[in-house]
Amino acid sequence: MPKQETITSSEFQSQVKQKTKRPAKYRNQIIVVDGEKFHSKKEYAHWVHLKQLQSDGVIHDLKRQVPFEFIHNGFKIGKFTADMAYYITANNQYIVSDVKSPITKMETSYRLRRKMMIAFFGIEVTEV
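The structure assignment produced for this chain is given below.
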């Protein structure tokens, strides 16, 4: 009869987590740069591009992970977190952008939130 090994509950949970780690749903690779987490390489590349535009004075007030809450008659019915938001310096136009792959653009929940952004705030989300 083989010898049984005794492990603690936390060791067991740690082993289970290691074995069950799956790739991201859409195969995107999360990267961390200077302590900031980006959900994909494409999102990071867009951020670098916008940072350059900001330093050139083309845009200003660049922000990441900007939350918008959909509240109707005092009830919160949902929220949308935009990847980036900024103002175009020339005309002070507010731009909300979200980095999407062709697959994630088609998600029903994303399409609904994109429409809710127009209905609640009059903002059309720019897809990158």
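Interim note for the steering committee: The helical segments are 9-20, 41-55, 102-105, 108-121. The CA atoms of residues 65 and 83 lie 5 Å apart.
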